[in-house]
Design goal:
The chain is an alpha+beta fold. The protein has a domain of 67 residues. The chain is built from one helix and six strands, in the order H-E-E-E-E-E-E. Strands 1, 2, 3, 4, 5 and 6 form a six-stranded antiparallel sheet that branches. It is elongated, with a radius of gyration of 27 Å.
């Protein structure tokens, strides 16, 4: 009889912890930067291939356009790599743009994206 009473008391003490762990976790995740895939184009005049990549890394491409990465006077910026098959070389550069702040559907991202 003693053991039954001990098990019932232990179960009563552990019940709030068990029921709380069975709840569904609720979270909202979003990112402030946008990721773009590699852009490609073929010239209609000579048929040569062009490739454009965005990145926020010092070396390599991650496709990211980050908020206020290079300058605070624009909303988004990134490094760019433009590869030309015609010349066989990659030209580095930078891009900065102001993204409109309107969010009509309330998903946390500007409607520009």
């Amino acid at each position: 009889m003693k053991y039954i009473l001990i098990f019932l008391m232990a179960g009563g003490l552990l019940w709030p912890g068990i029921s709380r762990s069975a709840e569904t976790a609720q979270a909202r995740l979003y990112c402030l930067s946008a990721q773009f895939q590699q852009a490609t184009a073929t010239s209609v005049y000579d048929g040569f291939y062009w490739r454009l990549n965005l990145t926020t890394l010092a070396s390599g491409d991650n496709g990211e356009l980050a908020p206020q990465f290079l300058t605070t006077s624009y909303t988004h910026s990134a490094y760019v790599d433009l590869y030309s098959e015609l010349y066989g070389e990659t030209d580095p550069g930078a891009i900065a743009l102001n993204v409109p702040a309107n969010d009509a559907n309330g998903d946390g991202f500007p409607d520009f994206f």
